[in-house]
Every structure is written in C-alpha cells, then in structure tokens.
C-alpha cells in the first residue's frame, strides 16, 4: 500500500483517497465543517487547510488526493495560524447565542472555537443579520444568522435524499439558504440535515428546546419504524425518550434514518396511556390486579379450553426472544398448532433508499423463531375465520394492535370467551381484552430483532421499569441518573410496572405448572441459538453493536418481505 | 512522684481575689456604657453587604419578564445538582425561556457558581438568608419564589460587574 507522512506519522492510503479520508482511516481527525464522508466534496469551509511540503500554498485536506511520499503537516505553525484565521473568519458573523442554541454541546463550531479560536474577536462592527426562526419544512427550523454556509444540507438533499429542495441565494456575507420557490424541506429524510449541520442553523422542530444535549443519556438501539432496522441512539432524560438519532452502520443505514422513524416511533413510550400493571376484566371493566393474581387467572382460564380452541398471535413488533417463548409456550404447554402473526405492510411507505414496505421491525425474526402455524394449524386468516365461527374460543395476542389495523376485527374478536393481550399501551385491542399484561416497549428491554435482509440486531434498555433497573442492568447513565435520588423530581421519572413479553410468558408458564427457567433475555437467546439453525453460533457478544447476519437459507423468506 | 511546684506563687493580693473581682467588674461596667452591637433578631434584621451570598434568585426585568433564557449552564455547573431547568419557546426576541425553573434549597450550598456562569446575568445571589421548611416539598423553589425585581438586586449586580 502506498504511504504518506502526516505530522511525522506514516499513513497508508488507497489510490484515490484524499488526505482527510486517509487520516480518518488511521484515526486522525483533521478539523472540518463542510466535508462529510458520505457527501460530495465541496471544499468551501477551508478549515481543513494543511501544509504540504513542496507545495507553494496551503491546501485543503478534504479535496487534495494523497500521493506516495507526500509530507503533510496538519499541526505546523503555518497550518495552525491558517486554521485560526479561518475560525476567526467563520465567527465574524456568527452570533454569540450558544445559550439559546440547541446545537450547543454538539456543535463543531463551538468545539473548534474552543480548540483553535483566539478567544477574542477583533470584529467590532455590526454583524450581518439574516432571517431567524424560519421553518424550512414541517420538521426543520432554520436560523440564518448561525449558518456558516458549508452546504452540507444542500448536498444531502441533492445526493442522499435525491430530492433537491434547498439552495443558496445571494453572495458573499449575505449568502443564505432557502427552499426553492413553492417548495419546502419535506422529503422523508429531511431531519438528517439537523444531524449533519455542523452548527445550530438547522435544528429539529420536534426536539426544539426540550433538553440540553449534555443532559441526555444515549443508548445504542434499533429503530422500530420499519423492517430496515436503522441503527439509532435512544436519548433519554428523566426516564423519558426525548429524541432518536441515527447511529452509523454502513451495512444498514450509513449515517441516516427517516423522519418517520425519528418522530413517530418513540412518543408512545412516554405516553400517558401506558398499561402500568396487569389488568383483569371484572364486571365488564378492566381493573388493576397484581401479577400473581393475573397469572393465576390467565392459567386457570387457559386450562378450561381444549388445545384446539386456543390460538396464539405473535408479533412482528416484539423481539425474537418474546416470539420464541410464545411459540414454545403455545406448542409445549398448550399444545396448539394455531399460531401466526399479523403482517404490517404499507405499500406507500417503502422507497428505494431506507424505508421498507414492511413497517414492522421483526417480521422475519418472528417467523424464523417459530411464529407460524403448525402442521394442520390455522394461519391468521384461518384463526379469524374460526373465531367468527366460534371454533376458536380463546386467543392469546402478544404486542400487536390488531384492531387499529383492521377495525372489522373488533366485532369478531368481541365474541371470544377469552382474549389475553400483552400490550404496552391501552388501545383499541385492549378495549375488548379480558386480561391485559403490561408489556415493555422496545426501549425498555434487552432483545434482538431481525431486519428484512436477515441481519439480527440488538435492542438495549434505555428507559428503566420495575423490570429493568438502570444501575443493575448496566444501562447508560446521565449525570442526573447517577446522582439523583428518589426525592428529586428530575431523577427517575415515571417508572412503569411493565415486563418484557418473554418474562411475562415465563411467569405464566410457572402458573401453568411448567416453569421456564430463564433469568435474562440472553439466556432465552442462547436457547434460540441452540434450537434454531439460522441462529447457530450467535450470541449477544457476536451480534455486538452492528448486528450479524443470520444463516437464512434454511428458512423460507416470509411472503411479505 | 515528685511534687510539681508552681513556677511563681500567687502574691497576697492575688490570693485574696478582691482586686481581681473589682477589675473584672470595672470592665463589665465600662462595656455597659459603650454602644451596643447585639442585634435584636428577628425584630431587627441584618442587612448583608453586596458581597454576601444568600439564596440564589432569578432577575425579573421591569416588564415582568425573566432574563433567563434557560441555557441550563447553572444547572450543569451546580455541584450539588440543585437546579432544574426546563426550556420552552416564546415569541419574544430571545426565543427561549424557562417554563420551569426549580432550585432545591435542600441541595443548594450557596457557592454562587450558578451566578458566576450565567451568561445573561439572570441568576444572582440575593441577601435572603431566612430559609426554613417543614417538609421536602417546601424546599423546592419554583419561578414564583425565585423571580425578584431587578431594582432589588441592583447592588449585587453592580458588585458582580466590578469583581466578576
């Protein structure tokens, strides 16, 4: 491999790589604003100026190709003074409003001003004022004053979202960013511009002023908005999810995620209508009960039906662990073959970038771990028909709001003698349920989900419940979580009495007289890895932060993929 | 054990004590006639100098609006985590304001770091030292108790401008 020298260190590079790329590969970050790994090179911020031997002037590292034997200095006096000059120039018209700016704390300009700025401004004149608080689209707010004209957002819309909506207008220090006439920034990926904006010019309207970024704890998780399974960070304060941000995974979503995933998939976690304990229907209304009481009721009710009168409906929203145990519970303890899950398919949702038409995160996983009808058993449509006919008298439904998706089922399922539901929130389905178990959401449990192409990825708890304790589970802690006590209103937030579905099933199996002895989700997964060939050889360690591919040739792909 | 002797024996006058008692009484009577320093608290209040760090308060401008923009720096710097700030948006020129600002006076240690870090001169240490609560809830001071008109805090603000 060819080599060049950067700050006295030999660095290997591939032909065609720029200096900044090669440096980044070797773990050296040359300061930059406008350069972004996934976007074209624009070279307008000039902050990556480096000194190169035998070159008459400084060159920008983002667009200069590395060459064999090149000697580059990124920290020499000449390079540093150029960088300081560029910083001074960027800061001339940048307002000093970090206290009210949402970007503060994760702002590149702030970081570089701290490390490279002179600390004082020589500019005593009036700063140029541009439009502030301009809603560029339904989810993105623009502040012209703060913009440093790096053009990352423009390039993102052109190159990644493939929907040119933004452009520069005017010139020199009056340059600003607008949407094309009659357009707004409303492409399905618009909020990514708030992540790549190096300053606070583009901010999320959904997260606007909700919290300072340094107050948040961040947990590596997976988006549950569709079967792509974009890697995300769940950002939590006071036990409330406040925002989701994409996490880089080149095999799944690169640096990006869609707006639907970002704003529509976390609010139910913080919602007021969470199921906060088991509920039993007594005299027509759901009433709160204890766990043991609910387990006893569910088990004695289930025992009063023959195995062919009971059907199980798994969930493409629940984890593999949950579905695996449901399948085990149905076949081993109840002995029924009637088992399936509801597909969630929206043909209008998918596109050819990230979004997939299958809007549930774990359809493939549910199917792979055993949620399908046994030999001679009924599939979902068969179950619905038999419920209508009265042949199936009891249905056990895990984590899916069937009736919201298909309202006509309400009348049919109301006929059931026994309808047991695991649900995180009260909804149309719990309205007609006889026993409701409070299920943890994807942000409250350990588990794995399998995306559309068979990549198994890990969920980690970010929100504490009675079931998962922040300290004991090794969950990420913010300073508030670390030092707060139960007397502080900002420390523990609303902790709910919800459990992972697999833990509910394990509890119920005890009441049925056939106890599953799993202590953690990892133990369930070890069992999956042992008994299902596609998962052979996998464990939580192997899956890691970026996921692992299943050996899927042994499983038929679901029809809805 | 050897007897320990005094280095110097008392004189006769010292032994009879009377002159010493008279000396002491003379001092007492002298001070009775001097001006008094005792303050009749709580009837009479101590008014501290501007350098005094009493409980932190929020500065309220004359138009009834707080100066605070809810940047959260006081909350970040607070060593005992006494301050909780929740920001929200307003139509005013400074687009951000604290919809909730709470100081837990049981946690506060009166160090004044919040005042020192504040970029808006919006939180200052007042002269209020009278803090008593009968339960934990009462010790949470919200905006209603914290907002103080700027003219009552002027001497502290002037002091800070000179010395900060």
Which topology of the domain at 56-163 in chain B does CATH recognise?
Alpha-Beta Plaits
Low-pLDDT segments of chain B: none
N-C termini distance of chain A = 42 Å
**Major sheet details of chain B:** 3 strands, mixed
CATH top level assignment of the domain at 279-460 and 495-554 in chain A: Alpha Beta
| Cα end-to-end separation of chain B | 65 Å
Number of strands of chain B: 6
Radius of gyration of chain A: 27 Å
Task: Give the SSE layout.
The complex is a heterodimer of chains A (561) and B (164).
Chain A: E1 3-6, E2 9-12, H1 19-25, E3 49-52, E4 59-60, E5 71-73, H2 77-92, H3 108-116, E6 134-135, E7 140-142, H4 152-160, E8 166-169, E9 176-179, H5 192-196, E10 202-204, E11 217-222, E12 231-237, E13 240-246, H6 259-264, H7 267-270, E14 279-282, E15 285-288, H8 291-303, E16 310-314, H9 320-334, E17 339-341, H10 363-368, H11 380-389, E18 394-398, H12 402-405, H13 409-414, E19 418-423, H14 428-431, E20 435-438, E21 447-450, E22 455-459, H15 479-483, H16 501-511, H17 521-531, H18 540-543, E23 548-549
Parallel strand pairs in A: 1-5, 16-17, 16-18, 18-19, 19-20
Antiparallel strand pairs in A: 1-2, 3-4, 3-5, 6-7, 7-10, 8-9, 11-12, 12-13, 14-15, 14-20, 21-22, 22-23
Chain B: H1 12-16, H2 18-33, E1 56-60, H3 73-77, E2 83-89, E3 96-104, H4 113-117, E4 123-125, E5 140-141, H5 143-146, E6 147-149, H6 154-163
Parallel strand pairs in B: 1-6
Antiparallel strand pairs in B: 1-4, 2-3, 3-5
Structure overview:
The complex is a heterodimer of chains A (561) and B (164). With 561 residues, chain A is α+β, with helices and mostly antiparallel strands. Among the domains of chain A are: 3-92, Ubiquitin-like (UB roll) (Roll), CATH 3.10.20.740; 279-460 and 495-554, Rossmann fold. Chain A is 26% helix and 17% strand. Chain A has 18 helices and 23 strands. Chain A has a seven-stranded mixed β-sheet, with helices on both faces. In chain A, strands 2-1-5-3-4 form a five-stranded mixed β-sheet, with helices on one face. A three-stranded antiparallel β-sheet of chain A has the order 6-7-10. In chain A, a hairpin with a 2-residue loop joins strand 14 and strand 15 (285-288). In chain A, helix 9 (320-334) packs parallel to helix 16. Residues 554-561 of chain A have low confidence and may be disordered. With 164 residues, chain B is of the alpha+beta class. Chain B has a domain at 56-163: Alpha-Beta Plaits (2-Layer Sandwich), CATH 3.30.70.3270. Helices cover 27% and strands 18% of the residues of chain B. Chain B has six helices and six strands, in the order H-H-E-H-E-E-H-E-E-H-E-H. Chain B has helices at 12-16, 18-33, 73-77, 113-117, 143-146, 154-163; strands at residues 56-60, 83-89, 96-104, 123-125, 140-141, 147-149. Chain B has a three-stranded mixed β-sheet. In chain B, strand 2 and strand 3 (96-104) form a beta hairpin. The A-B interface holds A 98-100, 104, 132-133, 208-212, 214-215, 479-480, 483-484, 487-490 and B 69-73, 75-76, 81, 84, 87-89, 94-96, 102, 104, 119-120, 136, 140.
């Amino acid at each position: 491999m060819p080599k060049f020298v950067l700050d006295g260190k030999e660095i290997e590079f591939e032909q065609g790589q720029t200096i900044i790329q090669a440096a980044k590969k070797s773990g050296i970050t040359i300061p930059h604003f406008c350069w972004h790994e996934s976007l074209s090179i624009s070279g307008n911020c000039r902050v990556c100026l480096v000194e190169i031997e035998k070159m008459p002037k400084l060159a920008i590292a983002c667009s200069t190709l590395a060459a064999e034997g090149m000697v580059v200095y990124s920290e020499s006096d000449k390079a540093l003074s150029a960088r300081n000059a560029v910083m001074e120039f960027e800061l001339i018209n940048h307002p000093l409003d970090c206290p009210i700016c949402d970007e503060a704390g994760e702002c590149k300009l702030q970081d570089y001003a701290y490390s490279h700025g002179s600390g004082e401004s020589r500019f005593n004149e009036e700063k140029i004022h541009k439009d502030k608080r301009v809603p560029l689209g339904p989810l993105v707010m623009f502040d012209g004053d703060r913009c440093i004209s790096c053009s990352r957002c423009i390039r993102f819309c052109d190159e990644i979202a493939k929907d040119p909506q933004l452009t520069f207008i005017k010139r020199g220090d009056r340059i600003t960013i607008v949407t094309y006439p009659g357009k707004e920034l409303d492409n399905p990926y618009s909020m990514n511009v708030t992540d790549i904006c190096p300053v606070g010019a583009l901010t999320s309207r959904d997260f606007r002023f909700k919290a300072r970024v340094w107050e948040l704890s961040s947990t590596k998780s997976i988006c549950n908005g569709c079967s792509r399974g974009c890697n995300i960070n769940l950002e939590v304060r006071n036990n409330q999810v406040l925002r989701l941000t994409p996490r880089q995974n080149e095999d799944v979503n690169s640096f990006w995620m869609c707006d639907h995933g970002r704003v529509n998939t976390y609010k139910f976690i913080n919602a007021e209508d969470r199921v906060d304990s088991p509920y039993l229907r007594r005299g027509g209304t759901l009433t709160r009960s204890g766990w043991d009481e609910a387990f006893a009721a569910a088990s004695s009710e289930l025992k009063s039906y023959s195995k062919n009168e009971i059907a199980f409906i798994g969930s493409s929203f629940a984890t593999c662990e949950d579905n695996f145990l449901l399948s085990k519970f149905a076949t081993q303890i109840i002995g029924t073959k009637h088992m399936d899950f509801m597909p969630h398919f929206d043909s209008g949702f998918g596109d050819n970038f990230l979004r997939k038409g299958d809007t549930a995160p774990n359809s493939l996983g549910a199917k792979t771990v055993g949620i399908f009808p046994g030999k001679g058993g009924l599939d979902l449509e068969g179950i619905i028909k038999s419920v209508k006919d009265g042949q199936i008298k009891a249905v056990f439904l895990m984590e899916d709001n069937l009736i919201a998706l298909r309202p006509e089922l309400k009348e049919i399922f109301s006929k059931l003698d026994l309808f047991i539901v695991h649900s995180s929130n009260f909804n149309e389905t719990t309205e007609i349920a006889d026993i409701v178990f409070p299920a943890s959401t994807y942000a409250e449990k350990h588990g794995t989900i399998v995306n559309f192409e068979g990549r198994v990825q890990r969920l980690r708890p970010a929100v504490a419940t009675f079931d998962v304790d922040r300290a004991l589970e090794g969950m990420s802690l913010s300073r508030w979580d670390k030092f707060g006590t139960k007397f502080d209103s900002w420390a523990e937030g609303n902790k709910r009495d919800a459990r992972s579905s697999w833990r509910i099933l394990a509890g119920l199996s005890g009441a049925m007289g056939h106890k599953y002895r799993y202590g953690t989700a990892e133990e369930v997964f070890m069992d999956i890895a042992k008994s299902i060939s596609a998962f052979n050889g996998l464990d939580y360690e192997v899956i890691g932060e970026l996921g692992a591919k299943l050996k899927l040739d042994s499983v038929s792909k679901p029809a809805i993929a | 054990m050897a007897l320990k002797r005094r280095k110097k024996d008392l004189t006769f006058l010292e032994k009879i004590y009377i002159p010493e008692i008279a000396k002491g009484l003379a001092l007492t009577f002298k001070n009775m006639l001097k001006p008094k320093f005792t303050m009749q608290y709580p009837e009479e209040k101590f008014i501290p100098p501007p350098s005094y760090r009493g409980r932190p308060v929020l500065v309220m401008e004359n138009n009834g609006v707080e100066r605070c923009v809810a940047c959260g720096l006081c909350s970040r710097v607070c060593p005992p985590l006494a301050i909780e700030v929740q920001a929200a948006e307003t139509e005013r020129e400074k687009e951000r304001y604290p919809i909730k600002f709470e100081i837990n006076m049981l946690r506060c240690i009166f160090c004044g770091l919040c005042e020192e870090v504040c970029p808006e001169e919006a939180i200052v240490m007042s002269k209020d030292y009278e803090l008593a609560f009968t339960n934990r809830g009462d010790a949470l001071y919200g905006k209603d108790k914290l907002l103080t008109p700027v003219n009552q805090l002027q001497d502290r603000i002037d002091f800070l401008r000179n010395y900060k």
